[in-house]
């Protein structure tokens, strides 16, 4: 198998999540955990126990004191982002605060939601430009605020280059003006400490499959004062205290709860491992390619696991194809019908075209060894040389 360098796209289950889900699937739990968490009999309360325990672990991971009120489960990061923005729309409209500030490098799960509401005339949106390191400054956000600004939504960590935004400073200046702050923390949680009280944000998105939990599960943190202002996205029965209808995904929650608890227990060691493998990858690339001028897009202060590298005079998809059997990673540029499209993020930080077309996102994680990182670096260098020849 190729070395997996695409942990920002999705992670495997961690051992803790696998154990919890295996126990759930075991024959001995076949009936005992089959209940609907909303049922009042013993089967229901056993299933509700799985949901409550997952909620407590997610709350602990985010430094949230009151899990019951503040953590609501969703189908993942996309739903949580949709809900944060669309759920606030009635409040923003009623208060005449329909201007939203965001950045020009948000994930489509924020950008496309805003663009669709903008096109429908429901919101006006200012997209603050990031700097050369992919970050939005608090001053730039401050300058974009208007009297009718009701919401600031900014990612905590960027999925392509791993840059981090100063959410704490931004939340402070928004709090002083009564502006709601949402952060898409899908890529940050599980890689860096994320504590909602020190960040001071009102809404925060969690995506399970970026932190070694299964795909199809996530959460939205909702600050207590914001609860009454947020309309449900999913209407139906009274699940999740009336805030998100649909029977809770108990098996997936068993995995998310265990994965969140593992983040609480091992974050520091994990981050050190991610950084060591990322650094091994980079060192190998620059050593192997000697005089070739590689551009490292990921800021030194960014996520510990993310290395965005631009190779000159090559197309990212050609390079990935050349190393297909040895390395699995993501391209920062795509080619369709002969037309090359540079990713919005790589374009926004101003990488010159000669390099931008050859941008790869290499993201490391728990199950990558330093030896594998070095082997992947050598394979990429070899593949690049072969394409140049
Ligand atoms: C920054 C960011 N936000 C949101 C998402 C969407 O999350 P999910 O796949 O759980 O819907 C992703 C996934 O790639 C992401 O990287």
From TrEMBL:
What is this enzyme's EC?
A: 2.8.1.7
Which residue ranges does the record assign to the Aminotransferase class V domain? 3-372
Record has Transferase as a keyword: yes
GO molecular function annotation: cysteine desulfurase activity; iron-sulfur cluster binding; metal ion binding
Keywords attached to this entry = Iron, Iron-sulfur, Metal-binding, Pyridoxal phosphate, Transferase
Q: Which InterPro entries match?
A: Aminotrans_V_dom, Aminotrans_V_PyrdxlP_BS, Cysteine_dSase, PyrdxlP-dep_Trfase, PyrdxlP-dep_Trfase_major, PyrdxlP-dep_Trfase_small
Broadest EC class assigned to this enzyme: transferase
Q: Which domain of life is it from?
A: Eukaryota
> What cofactors are annotated for this protein?
pyridoxal 5'-phosphate
Fetch the SUPFAM superfamilies from UniProt.
PLP-dependent transferases (SSF53383)
The family annotation for this protein states: Belongs to the class-V pyridoxal-phosphate-dependent aminotransferase family. NifS/IscS subfamily.
Instruction: Quote the PANTHER family the UniProt record gives.
Output: CYSTEINE DESULFURASE, CYSTEINE DESULFURYLASE FAMILY MEMBER
Name of protein: cysteine desulfurase
Annotated source species: Thecamonas trahens ATCC 50062
